[in-house]
Design brief:
10 helices; single chain; Alpha-Beta Plaits; about 280 residues; alpha+beta; 6-stranded mixed β-sheet; elongated
Length: about 280
């Protein structure tokens, strides 16, 4: 009777105890079982545009408005004016005229829902007077997403196991489980929203400003004043030369009128000499 009771207890213990390998596989499923289903391709896209615009600030405002209408957000904006040339002319003893030639430029980066990328780029392209460059890149995230999915599943299994047994709570790491969740959210955010970088450049513009003459001529030396006068005279001469070159049509008409008048005058003088003879 004692022997029979011993055998019954032994069989019950064998059936109630699972091998360590089986328990590990249930807690941490192999990647082959997940990959066998054939994961769909997951691509995170980034795009960039570079073009010339007639009005850079107006184009920036249009891009911000279009991004907001398509459910996106602006993450970076920059406007700047690069000064190409500055000239200063003396208007009077106490006034100076400062003329600047500058080139406006801008940069803007936005994040958009992936389904609205092409639509937004087509709308922005209408603001371009000349498109320099357009690029769309895709990053493969299929297996990175699978890796995070497996890590998240393992963390969930770890939580369930830790609730049943206090001994297994020792190997459970709460920080790694949180990191797996955050990494999974980051990957899904990269897939749902794409990033668009845009660089704009405008045409060369000119601005004039009257400034106060702080007494440069009265306090400077004679060579300095002579150099400034020579430079101002040279600027005026070059401006006059280019003005004449721009009005070449008018100069040509005046030259033709002068030649015709001279020919008529010569013909009259010749006719008078013939009559006198």
């Amino acid at each position: 009777m004692v022997i029979l009771l011993f055998l019954v207890l032994l069989l019950k213990g064998c059936t109630g105890h699972q091998p360590a390998e089986t328990a590990f596989q249930e807690t941490f499923p192999a990647a082959d079982s997940v990959a066998a289903t054939g994961p769909q391709r997951s691509l995170a896209r980034t795009a960039s545009m570079e073009f010339q615009a007639k009005d850079v600030s107006k184009a920036i405002r249009f891009i911000e408005k279009t991004t907001s209408q398509n459910g996106g957000l602006v993450i970076h904006t920059r406007l700047s004016n690069e000064i190409d040339q500055t000239r200063t002319y003396t208007v009077s003893k106490d006034s100076l005229l400062q003329i600047r030639h500058y080139t406006p430029s801008g940069e803007i980066s936005v994040r958009l829902p992936d389904s609205h990328l092409e639509e937004t780029m087509r709308a922005i392209e209408k603001e371009a007077s000349f498109l320099d460059r357009l690029t769309i890149d895709s990053e493969e995230l299929t297996y990175s997403l699978l890796e995070q999915k497996l890590a998240l599943r393992r963390s969930e299994k770890s939580i369930a196991s830790a609730r049943k047994s206090k001994e297994e709570f020792k190997w459970y790491n709460r920080e790694k489980a949180d990191q797996a969740k955050v990494a999974n959210l980051v990957l899904h955010d990269k897939l749902s929203y794409c990033t668009l970088h845009i660089r704009l450049k405008g045409a060369v513009m000119q601005s004039g400003e009257l400034t106060v003459n702080t007494g440069r001529h009265s306090g400077s030396s004679f060579p300095q004043r002579l150099t400034d006068a020579w430079l101002q005279g040279w600027y005026i001469l070059t401006d006059l030369f280019f003005l004449i070159m721009q009005c070449w049509g008018l100069v040509l008409i005046l030259l033709i009128i002068y030649l015709i008048f001279r020919m008529l005058r010569t013909a009259r003088q010749l006719h008078r000499r013939i009559e006198q003879r």
